[in-house]
Amino acid sequence: MAIKKILxxxxxxxxxxxxxxxxxxxxxxxxxxxxxEDAFRRLAEDKPELILMDxxxxxxxxxxxTRAITRDPLYSDIPIMMCTSKNQETDRxxxxxxxxxxxxxxxxxADELMxxxxxxx
Length: 121
What we know:
The structure is a single chain. This protein is α/β, with parallel strands linked by helices and 121 residues long. The chain has five helices and five strands. Strand 4, helix 4 (89-97) and strand 5 (102-105) form a beta-alpha-beta unit.
């Protein structure tokens, strides 16, 4: 099943605008959230088919939020891709251990992102 609906979780308005613009131009429907509370509200409103998750956010970070979502029976089937400036191998491994299905580093390469989304779909 091809992914069409994506939730982007990032505390940076610049990143939210960049990723939303990129994804909408590629034909995706995009919702955004700026923190964990916002993300859970969006999940309840309209379940996405993919979540792009930043790591460094105030309050609950992306690793914690990924763990919470993947352990929730209502949302555990939604693939999560970490989308972060944290580019160390240990960060990638930790993100995957929290339940992420893939990991991409910022600045995001549009072609790489599209290939990873297609692979998850």
